[in-house]
Amino acid sequence: MQSDNPLIADFVKLLNGAAGTFAGMSREAGATAREKLREAMGGLDFISREEFDAVKEMAATAREEVETLKERLAKLEGAAASSDPAESASDTAVG
């Protein structure tokens, strides 16, 4: 049973329009909130996962290089200690 009352039809149109407007406002408010949160998080100087992984890889490479250099230094010190002590004494006296 439909009513031909124009007042009711206008009221229904008004409610439908209001529902669409509220849905749009809700989407816009959500987008604005996400953008504000993104800005706030950006101000805290967080780094991206890619940057973290890159620095982690650089640190691992540096540790490997340090270990290699420690081994080379130990070999050189061992070679210097096993060389003639008289030469080492004269080198330190000159230097």
What attributes does this structure have?
single chain, 95 residues, mainly alpha, 2 domains, 3 helices, coiled coil, Accessory factor UbiK family protein, UbiK
H/E series: HHH
* Low-pLDDT stretches: none
Radius of gyration: 38 Å
How much of the polypeptide forms β-strand, as a percent range?
A: under 5%
Q: What value does the average pLDDT take? A: 84
The count of domains is 2
Structural class given helices, strands, pairing?
mainly alpha
Can you count the beta strands? 0
Shape: rod-shaped
Helical amount among residues, as a percent range? over 70%
Please work out how many helical segments DSSP would assign: 3
Instruction: Summarize the main sheet.
Output: none
Span of the ends, CA to CA: 113 Å
Outline of this structure?
The protein has helices at 6-42, 49-82, 85-94.
Structure characterization notes:
The chain has 95 residues and is mainly α. The chain contains 3 helices and no strands. The longest helix has 37 residues, at 6-42. It is rod-shaped, with a radius of gyration of 38 Å. The termini are far apart.
